[in-house]
Design a protein that fits this description.
The chain is 33% helix and 21% strand. Strand 3 and strand 4 form a beta hairpin. It has two domains: 48 residues, no CATH class; 232 residues, NAD(P)-binding Rossmann-like Domain (Rossmann fold, 3-Layer(aba) Sandwich), CATH 3.40.50. The protein has a seven-stranded parallel beta sheet with strand order 8-7-6-9-10-11-12, with helices on both faces. A five-stranded antiparallel beta sheet has the order 1-5-4-3-2, with no helix packed on it. The chain contains six helices and twelve strands. Helix 2 packs parallel to helix 3 and helix 3 packs parallel to helix 4. It binds NADP nicotinamide-adenine-dinucleotide phosphate (NAP).
Length: 311
């Protein structure tokens, strides 16, 4: 196998020991039968590791560190669909996760803790924030996932109480919970908030206006909160899914198909050839709450397979 010279900064070796063997130095990694030794040439500012193969995986250090280890996360609506996928991704990344849905009997991904709460109400938000303080001791990551609405025959057919409900579920639930939990993040000068919006906000389909108007307001609010918290170490972003295969998404599209010839009966696939999967959205959320997005705030990440092209 051809030898390769791989340049790396000294800090790459911080977790390994460097031993002197004869005239050479070796970086060792792993333990027991998995110990590997890599010849290293030291210089004041760089080291060169000589290996028998090309590529970035110079040494086998075992699994990558879990990037959210030590973080405490709250995800609303984690019993199914996108919320459950987000919970799983955050758990896999090492976070401690608390999630919620309305029914105490809701199934949630293994490893997450759960509290039943209706986040449409002020008392529900307060109960959830109290549970987060009590069980986690505060939150570092807050993902507002709950949302949705039922389509109607047209804009003027949407009853007043459904407007109220859509605003409570898609906008005010996040505003209230942020109001209760973001001050703790600000005081600790650390935190990441993600609001789940919708890729459909630039469109104005009358049967769904209460939903898109509430989500558009959520995006506007999200950018403004990001501005306010940017100087305090807290990042705020939104993720806008396109049509994603979830129980809530499918039920809404079926209902829309029954009442109109609108997008609910459109069986064409997004340009990337398939509907979204909950994990597609969860991956975007994981990126935004991780240190990899440490210079990203006030942004909206559209994850829709190209369904709603934007200028
Ligand atoms: N799926 C899509 O195609 C799509 C597209 C664009 C945007 N989105 C957005 O993505 C987010 C998730 O959508 P989804 O399709 O995954 O939804 P979903 O399948 O309907 O799941 C919603 C989750 O939220 C919980 N929930 C609903 N109302 C709640 C309340 N008042 N208080 C507490 N928990 C509540 C549900 O549990 P319970 O019902 O048991 O309470 C469930 O866990 C929403 O904000 C939605 O607007 C989805």
């Amino acid at each position: 196998m051809a030898p390769a010279a791989i340049w790396s900064l000294p800090c790459d070796f911080s977790s390994r020991s460097v031993q002197k063997v004869g005239a050479a130095h070796y970086a060792t990694s792993g333990s027991g039968s998995r110990v590997q030794r890599t010849p290293v040439i030291s210089a004041p500012h760089v080291r060169i590791a000589i290996e028998g193969n090309y590529g970035m995986a110079v040494n086998d250090n075992g699994p990558a560190p879990r990037e959210l280890a030590g973080k405490r996360a709250l995800v609303t609506g984690g019993s199914r669909g996108i919320g459950a996928a987000v919970v799983r991704r955050l758990l896999e990344a090492g976070a401690e996760v608390l999630t919620t849905a309305r029914s105490a009997a809701s199934p949630v991904p293994e490893g997450a803790s759960f509290v039943a709460a209706d986040v449409r109400t002020r008392s529900g938000a307060q109960a959830l924030a109290a549970a987060a303080e009590e069980r986690l001791g505060g939150v570092d990551v807050l993902v507002h996932n709950v949302g949705g609405a039922q389509p109607h025959g047209g804009a003027l057919a949407i009853p007043d109480e459904e407007w109220q409900d859509a605003l409570n579920l898609n906008l005010l639930a996040a505003v209230r919970l942020d109001g209760l939990l973001a001050p703790g993040m600000r005081d600790r000068r650390s935190g990441a908030i993600v609001h789940i919006s919708s890729a459909a906000t630039p469109t104005v389909a009358p049967p769904f206006l209460h939903y898109t108007a509430a989500k558009a307001a959520l995006e506007n609010y999200s950018r403004g909160l990001a501005l306010e918290l940017a100087g305090h170490g807290v990042r705020v972003n939104s993720v806008s899914p396109g049509r994603t295969a979830t129980p809530g998404g499918e039920a809404t599209r079926e209902q829309w198909a029954r009442i109109s010839e609108g997008p609910g009966v459109d069986n064409t696939r997004p340009p990337l050839g398939r509907d979204g999967r909950p994990d597609d959205i969860a991956d975007a959320v994981l990126f935004l709450v991780s240190e990899r997005a440490s210079w990203v705030t006030g942004s909206g990440l559209v994850v829709d397979g190209g369904e709603f092209p934007r200028g």
